[in-house]
Each structure stands twice: as structure tokens, then as C-alpha cells.
Specification:
- The structure is a single chain.
- By secondary structure, this protein is α/β, with parallel strands linked by helices.
- The chain has 2 domains: 177 residues, FAD/NAD(P)-binding domain (3-Layer(bba) Sandwich); 145 residues, 2-Layer Sandwich (D-Amino Acid Oxidase, Chain A, domain 2), CATH 3.30.9.10.
- The chain contains 9 helices and 18 strands.
- The longest helix is centred in the last third of the chain and has 18 residues.
- The protein starts with a strand and ends in a 34-residue tail after the last helix.
Length: 392
């Protein structure tokens, strides 16, 4: 017997869970398909859990700020806790990037997002760092930025979706996808599922899953590692601090400090394990800006790894596919967040529900992140020209 749905959501991470909840509360018959035996076991469960408004692209600012406000009010809205803690994000900006960064800050403020410029001395009250005037010219701080609990948020969205009639199928890897003229037929271990529309929200696996449907969605997996110190002896509450001159970040995590840096020499692919081979280089950048890291110890057992889901411009792919193949317009993307899915999930869930049920998202214009940006006027795939500046 073939199970049916108005919308099949592929992926039960925080994005898929938010989409499923928003669809279900608008009355859609929803089935969530998760390849793993539990939700939130991909990038969601392995993220550094940061949320911030400090971006250079307006739509990134809007998605994050709307999501942060929902996480802030999660208990009042839904009766669940999100783990939102506004510890802040602090950017240390080298002189050559100061003007561009101030322009981005003006954009953020213009969109209603809270951010402020601090002097290096003011910033050093938040976290100790070496203030080289040539390297750190300005700093900016987002007082509403911080961290959340991605696992708890995911489970809350899924619980609410289930209470509204959604089905969540675990151990349900999509093996094949075929459009039959009116619906997508998805093959999973429990048997076929027929859905009038599909939302692909399976993170780093989104490109591969789209390929099963004959669609080219440029999302690739990139290994990312998070390193953790041993517990520090004294109290600390460091914001998530980003040294833009090197790309290194760190923040407090309980009694520890976690830190990392994207390894841009890492090839795309499903590589596994913490990249301890890159640790010396990461520590070198860390010690140059935060010399006190030298007095801490590394706890290898507390380190972890996961995947960024990366697109050519490091912005997400959102919304309905263009009419490039049979059934393409019934395939909706919610992927390619390049490390920012957790902080944008709440808004994306609402927008994708609008896209699926109203034909097009209405509360925000998704144009900059639609698939069409990768196409030439002749409809050929050409990639993207404009990149998000603030990828950590």
C-alpha cells in the first residue's frame, strides 16, 4: 500500500522539523522522512549552536533576526525551552575590512537587528585578546546574538508537528525519487510514499538526494571540526568571538572553551573524524590573538566534527525549483545554509510552508536565495557571483 502526503519533508534536522511544524499547523498532511534512527543527528546535532544577525546579505540578516526572536520567545509561544542564551557574537575586524563591515552593520541596524560598534578596549572586557591596531581596527557586538539548543528545538518542532497529525518516519532513507505526472513517488524501506510536493531539507546530503530526482542542486558536504579545551579553573562567559583576520572563532561552553576555523584546503566530501591534522595551524591562529589559550589543555574526547552544507556562494537554496525537469516545480529546497541552518530555521520553516501552500513565500522575498540565481539567461547552470562575506 502506498502512503500519501500533501508534502514529504526529507530530513528531520532543525530545518526539516521547522518546515514540518509550520506545514502541519496550516493543515497540510505531512510526512517527514529521516534516514537515521533518530532526529537531529546530522549537522543540527553537531553544530556550534550559534545564532547571529551579523551578515552582509540582507536576507541572511532577516532570516536570522526573525529566528532569534522566535527562539527568545519559544517558551511563551510553544511551552518548550529553546536554550537561547544571548551571550553575544563579537567580531574582531582588521583595518582593511573596516569600511565593508561598517556598511554591513548599517544594513543590520536598518533591518532592526541590534548590533553595536565597540572599541578594542571595550571588547577586551568581554574576552581577553591581543589588540594589534594594524589587525584589529574595529569590533562589533551583537547583544541579542548567542547560542541555542538545536536538539531541543528540533524535538519541540517535531513533537508539535506530530500533535497536529504529521508522521515522522525514522530509518527511512530515500532510495529513489520519480515524478509520476502529478506527485513525487519516493521509495523508502517501509514502502513507497506519494507526495504532491517535496521539501528537501537533508543538509549536506541535499545535493545527492536531489540527484535521485534528476535535479542538480549545488550543495556539497564540507567537514568541519570543533576543538574543546579542558575545563578552565576560573569562571568565564566569552561571547562567540570571530577573528576575521584569520577566521578563527571561540566561545565559552560550560567550563570549557570551544574553538575552530574552517579549513579551506579541505576537499568536499563525506570525510569523517575530527581534523587533528589541522590543529597546529588552528592553534597558531588562536595563540596569536588569544595568548591565554596556551595555558589551557586540549580535551580530545570533548572535540567533535560535523558537516557544513556548502553552495557556490555560501548562501542557502530556498524555495521551489524552476521548471527544468518533470516535477521540478513540485520540489522545494531548504538547504545549503553553509553553517547557518540552526540560526535561520524558525524563519525558513514559516517561509517554506508559505511557498508550498500558497505557491510562493509571502512574508519575505526569497529572490536572492532562489535556485534561479545559479542560471544564465539561457537557463544554463553557471554558479553564482555574489558571496556572503561573513562565513565562519
Amino acid at each position: 500500500m502506498t502512503r500519501t502526503a500533501d508534502v514529504a519533508v526529507i530530513g528531520a534536522g532543525i530545518i526539516g522539523a521547522a518546515v514540518a511544524f509550520n506545514l502541519a499547523r496550516r493543515g497540510a498532511k505531512v510526512v517527514v522522512l529521516e534516514a537515521q534512527p533518530a532526529p537531529a543527528t546530522g549537522s543540527t546535532g553537531r553544530s556550534a549552536a550559534g545564532v547571529r544577525v551579523q551578515f552582509s546579505e540582507a536576507l541572511n540578516v532577516q532570516l536570522s533576526w526573525e529566528s532569534i526572536q522566535e527562539y527568545r520567545d519559544f517558551g511563551r509561544l510553544y511551552g518548550y525551552e529553546s536554550g537561547y542564551d544571548p551571550v553575544g557574537y563579537l567580531f574582531l575586524v582588521p583595518a582593511e575590512n573596516a569600511e565593508e563591515h561598517r556598511n554591513a552593520m548599517a544594513l543590520q541596524l536598518g533591518l532592526g537587528a541590534p548590533v553595536q560598534e565597540l572599541s578594542p578596549a571595550e571588547a577586551q572586557l568581554l574576552v581577553p585578546f591581543t589588540a594589534d591596531p594594524e589587525a584589529t581596527f574595529i569590533t562589533t557586538f551583537g547583544p541579542a546574538d548567542g547560542v541555542v539548543d538545536p536538539h531541543s528545538i528540533t524535538m519541540a518542532y517535531l513533537s508539535m508537528a506530530r500533535s497536529l497529525g504529521a508522521a515522522v518516519m525514522l530509518d527511512s532513507r530515500v532510495r529513489a525519487a520519480r515524478f509520476d505526472g502529478s506527485s513525487w513517488r519516493l521509495e523508502v524501506p517501509a514502502g513507497p510514499l506519494s507526495a504532491r510536493q517535496v521539501v528537501c531539507a537533508c543538509g549536506a546530503w541535499s545535493g545527492a538526494v536531489a540527484a535521485l530526482a534528476g535535479l542538480q542542486v549545488p550543495v556539497l558536504p564540507m567537514l568541519r571540526s570543533v576543538y574543546a579545551t579542558a575545563p578552565l579553573s576560573g569562571p568565564h562567559r566569552y561571547p562567540l568571538t570571530v577573528d576575521l583576520s584569520s577566521g578563527l572563532y571561540l566561545r565559552s561552553e560550560g567550563k570549557r572553551v570551544i574553538f575552530g576555523r574552517s579549513n579551506h584546503e579541505q576537499p568536499a566530501g563525506f570525510f569523517e573524524g575530527v581534523d587533528f591534522g589541522d590543529l597546529d595551524r588552528v592553534l597558531g591562529f588562536g595563540l596569536a590573538r588569544f595568548p591565554w589559550l596556551g595555558s589551557t589543555g586540549l580535551d580530545r574526547r570533548a572535540c567533535w566534527w560535523g558537516y557544513y552544507e556548502v553552495t557556490p556562494d555560501e548562501n542557502p537554496v530556498l524555495g521551489r525549483m524552476p521548471d527544468l525537469a518533470p516535477g521540478a516545480t513540485a520540489w522545494l529546497n531548504a538547504s545549503g545554509f553553509s553553517g547557518h541552518g540552526v540560526q535561520q530555521a524558525a524563519a525558513v520553516g514559516r517561509l517554506l510552508a508559505e511557498e508550498a501552500l500558497e505557491g510562493r513565500a509571502t512574508s519575505l522575498e526569497l529572490g536572492p536565495f532562489r535556485y534561479e540565481r545559479f542560471l544564465s539567461p539561457a537557463g544554463e547552470f553557471v554558479g553564482a557571483a555574489k558571496r556572503e562575506t561573513y562565513i565562519v
